[in-house]
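Forwarding these from the shared drive since the link keeps breaking.
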Amino acid sequence: MTLTRLTRAGAALLLCAGFSTTALAHNPMCECKEIPGEQIQCTGGFSDGSGAPGVTLDVIGYDETILLPGKLGQDSTLTFKKPAAEFYVLFDAGPGHVVEIDQADIQPQ
């Protein structure tokens, strides 16, 4: 191999390594808590500390019907009335950035 090819190969490896590190640096995070008044408050964001305003957060029944379509507000939260039916919360920031929270995992504040 020539020096030019080795340099290009090395640069490609460093570039790929940089992308994989960047991709792992912001995993999706979502937490939901039950608050007084039969309300649920969910907060979403990423592990790098960034918020997630505008990201989809849907409340879905166990029969896969969307009980409440939603998006996180400017403060990266969404508050909704606790559904009577069994449900889970789906935080969906795109492929590979999805978090599901079952109602059984939502604790009082």
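-- next protein --
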Amino acid sequence: MEGREMIPRYTRKAMEGIWTLESKYGKWLEVEIAACEAWAEMGEIPQEALNVIREKAGFDAERIDEIEVTVKHDVIAFLTSVSEHVGPEARYIHKGLTSSDILDTALALLMRDAADIIINDIKTLLDILKEQAYRHREIPCMGRSHGIHAEPMTFGLKFALWHEDMKRNLERMKRAKDVISAGKLSGAVGTFSNIPPQIEEMVLSRLGLKPEPVATQVVQRDRHAEYLSTLAIVAACIEKIAVEIRHLQRTEVLEAEEPFAVGQKGSSAMPHKRNPVGSENLSGLARIVRSNSIAALENIPLWHERDISHSSVERIIIPDSTILVDYMLDRLKGIIEGLQVYPERMKANMMRSFGLYNSQRVMLALTEKGLSREDAYSLVQRNAMKSWQEERDFQTLLRQDPEVTKHLSAEELDTLFELSYYLRNVDYIFKRVFENA
């Protein structure tokens, strides 16, 4: 038995902190102050007023909620609270802007911060997958297609495959971060009617964002949909791993299983149970992230230059999806690190199909002796079906079939049944996966 016991250790503090009201309002204020600084550079706001704004600008989240009950507008409630902190100089705040200038630009900052956390999560998972791939590189196991024995592989190749998946996810998240890193300060319907383009350029440069070339009143929602779709792909890849672990942990297979902590209980009724609850949890959460991506796609078409049908949706799907994917990656790391691996069970399971996984090699060897592929296939399949039905060793049946032995000697059959043949290119695959990782 390999692996070590691990327990979930996720705290969610970093990611959840991004989506608090204080964090959101803080980003709003950051954008507003940056706009005031740009106006001041252009001589449109007195330096003295800017100094007061920088010194006194603040907000009270509870006060914002209180004001919003009356005004029914979150940005107005926010600006009112800021004004109460700043005083008369607050008249320069939000100059020439519309609500979406602040909302969308600040949202880009929040989503960018969330992307950074997820990118770091993936990088950590990549290290763990690589370590496990090399640890199990030479452990033979049965490869399966349709859930049925196919041909041998090594257990390390499973981790190498997942590593390659996550490398692509890393690049996807980097692209999604770049796509979402766009803001706008172009006013109502995006025509810069009450704010010059230079203000937008200065503010977004300060914030490390790029401008939305044609913004209408909002940053276009295909950007957000791409980001949420990327999270859905990451979640689906996590589920891919989780489903494999769930299958491997089945009693009839039991080639690997999740870590089972000291004191952990698997069932309220059956004390013997050790269930893949972590992987099942990941499968379930992936469904939520995928469904959220559909909602993001439906946010793309808005009425004319904007409506706010997207707003209520995004307040749920963006925090939820980023928090969930962060959690899923962290939980998966614990499962992979502590995965219990059973090489002897893998070896025993390989024997359960009576050596039938060598059928392709025998068929090809017969074609090399001059048989047509159709005749070779029929000859091998006839013996393979007998092996299945009678639960007899495949090689023994081949040795007893005169139509086989007139083409293949006993020594040739022995060679065709050598396990090392199937594993001879594993190092080549590892080199392709990890050489530039």
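Residues 1-10 have pLDDT under 50 and may be disordered. The CA atoms of residues 165 and 237 lie 7 Å apart.

- D.
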